[in-house]
Amino acid sequence: MLKLADSYAPTHMFAEYGVAGFIEDVQSAGVDIEVEYYPSGQLGSARDIASLTRSGAIDVSPAAPAYLSDQLPLSSVTDLPGLADDSCVAAQSFLELLEPGGILFETEYAPRGLRPLWVGVIPGYEFMTVSRQIHAPSDVRGLTLRSSGGAMDSNIAAVGGAPVSMPAADAYEALARGTVDGVSFPPASIIPYKLQEVLKYSTDGLNAGAFAIPYVISEVTWDSLSDEQRSVISQSANEAMTRLCNGIGSEQPKAIETMKSDGVEFISFDEEQAAEFEALLEPVRTKWAERFDAAGKPGSEVLAAYEEAIQRNESEATP
Hints:
Layout: E1 2-5, H1 13-27, E2 35-38, H2 49-55, E3 60-62, H3 87-98, H4 103-109, E4 114-122, E5 126-129, E6 144-147, H5 151-158, E7 162-165, H6 171-177, E8 182-185, H7 187-190, E9 201-204, E10 211-218, H8 219-224, H9 227-261, E11 265-268, H10 271-294, H11 299-317
Parallel strand pairs: 1-2, 6-7, 6-8, 9-11
Antiparallel strand pairs: 3-10, 4-10, 5-8, 5-9
């Protein structure tokens, strides 16, 4: 029996496109594995759930670097601005760094007894607000914006905003009460939390970062499985990742249309405005790497590996 838990509702993209198919594939493979699924934070919060996997209370769970910046700081490389804008490219590129032998697996996951199975990446983060239109970086100055944490804090601060780290599930109340002026979110994540009900404006095409979430299995659990069971789990995870990234890609345009129909105005940039944002966001990547280098961690090596993987996978994905 595998115990799988996360903090997402069963209708969320990560569950609908990723977890549901993984469970079905594993249980139908005939290798004597049943999966108990505990969604919606039943067994722990988004911040705590990976620790429960490490302790053995859960077998499989998400380990989002944005929520675990103290434990998986280098894995927040995916959240940096201006990198992959395609979910499948980003997920495959990130997974290469997370597999045994990959730099992130060896430096952050293996020491914690965690083995990544599949990855979901939601790219295309925009700045969305309750009352202020954003046409240029000057419009961001002074705004408090919900952040997923980690590298996203730096992305927001780079253009003059004040990041407020909180789980996505807390964003609606924070917006409604005026605790924050807006959010840094991808359109595809807006609808599950009904944030279009309290938002009025969104940038269009900013690409201010991404959110990545590896689903991991405890190494203790992995070691207890037979070779046949491991093979089934690995294959099921690969198929889950493919379904998930394709699902995310299909949800983004649908979410934008839903937001527009609910009254959210999308604001595009002209070349000069786009260049202003890029001039502030591009250095964030280098500064992120240099900060880790100075602390004795391989920041530049991780960034270079991720950028190289993105470039290669984008090239392979181009017809």
